[in-house]
Amino acid sequence: PAYNFTDKQAADLAQFVMEEWVDLDLQDEQAKEPEAPPDSPVRIRQGKLLFEELGCAGCHDLTPEDTKLAAPELTFIGSKPIHELDFGNAKIRHALPDFLYTKLKSPKVFRRDFKLPTWEKPAVAVWQNLRPTALFSDSTPSQDGSKSPELQQIFATVQQTGILDAKLRMPEDPARNQAVWLVRELNNVGALSPLRMPDFQLSDEDAEALTIALMSRSVVSIPSKRYEVPQVQKNVFNPKDGFGDLQRRYRCLSCHSIRESGDRRASDLTYEGSRVNRQWLYHYLNTPYSMRRTLAIAMPNFHFKDEESHFMADYMSTVFVDTQLGAGWERERHHANARPGQALFDAKGCIACHQVHGKGGDVGPSLTTQVPEFPQGTWVGDKLKGDWIYQWLHNPQALVPDTLEPNLGLSDQECLDLTAYLLTLKNPDFQEKK
Q: Of the candidates 132, 131, 126, which has an alpha carbon nearest to the alpha carbon of residue 147?
């Protein structure tokens, strides 16, 4: 449908799609490949000469007036929509240049396994789809293509022509089961593939030249810079150290963001070391749990090695910090009073969104989360640092711009008192263990 997007909305949506729907494993593979050469008139002419030398025009139409039906028309192949391409079993990026290059270089990778149609006699269907077409498809084995003798006849023929091993023996099963067995064996050797494209054993250079020549056959010549969606250049958090190795191995940025890099499906880790206590973080990496009663989803348990958990907790507690964060708490904490802080918690209606001892709302995280199997306290006072709580109460949007936490306009003293109260909420069971 036409949504009548503004230019900015269209650009934002395009940027989201390009960042969100990405195959990270495929990106890793592509990073190892050399870049394709630039489209130049010389390369286009080279590709057109190859097209003629290989006799491609014998099967492919190059103008709408041609009437060859042996292969797809290539008049405007450079403008062909992606959804009209059949990528078959090829494990490549779904883009037209990749499709054309791979089709020219290794056409067999597009092969799909043949499946017996339900509307046709098995023997007839197998016979008419055997490759090469010239040997088999001009005639059918008999009038009734559903009986075992016809399948045996096909089996003997493909053995005689060397398509299947002469030592193979067809099982003594009902005709339908024999047909399924025969199709499986023929699929394994690619004899039932509907592909007709020959493998010309092209060099990388020739395949690239042909690809460029075919891409030049478009409906109109489009000045790409005019229609290119401007990409927002973002910082990429990719440290060349032990943490970077672990982050890339476990794909942390697939869910988390760090210094404006990555995704926001889960919490931003930029200041995780200033936010949570190091011991809690170490245990959470080993035993993740859901922060909200209504959400069963939690961070996956990656079963980190103990040295990995220790290293990541130490690293985040040292590197992911802002030394100026919550400076007022360290400076004025001796003036904080938890009793008026509790009264303020009740007066501001914090219980509407946060739970305390099983009572309250589910919009925000529980402040007294119970996780019996967790080897450390999981209440807010066990988990968060006073510096972070104090800064958060002052201005939550300064830390997380899209948070639902309201800015209550608290005074410095109110932030001190409320921080002091929240830090008293520690799991008594864990405190007894200590």
A: 126
| Dihedral, 192, 194, 200, 204 alpha carbons, nearest 10 | -110
The three-state secondary structure class of 262 is: strand
Instruction: Report angle CA 83, 89, 93 to the nearest 5 degrees.
Output: 55
Integer CA distances (angstroms), 231 to 38, 44, 94, in order: 21, 28, 20
> How far apart are alpha carbons 12 and 178 in whole angstroms?
56
Query: Does pLDDT of 293 surpass 70?
Result: no
Q: Which of 345, 333, 347 has the alpha carbon at shortest distance from 412?
A: 333
| SS3 label, residue 104 | helix
Question: pLDDT tens for residues 26-36?
Answer: 666 655 554 54
> Of the spans 120-124, 296-300, 335-339, 369-373, which averages the highest pLDDT?
335-339
Global pTM?
0.50
Burial of 188 (0-12, 13-18, 19+ CB in 10 A): exposed
Residue that the structure tokens 């002091």 belong to: 420
**Range of lowest pLDDT (65-74, 173-182, 308-317):** 65-74
In this structure, are residues 139 and 163 in contact, taking their beta carbons and an 8 Å threshold? no
Q: Is 398 helix (H, G, I), strand (E, B) or coil?
A: helix
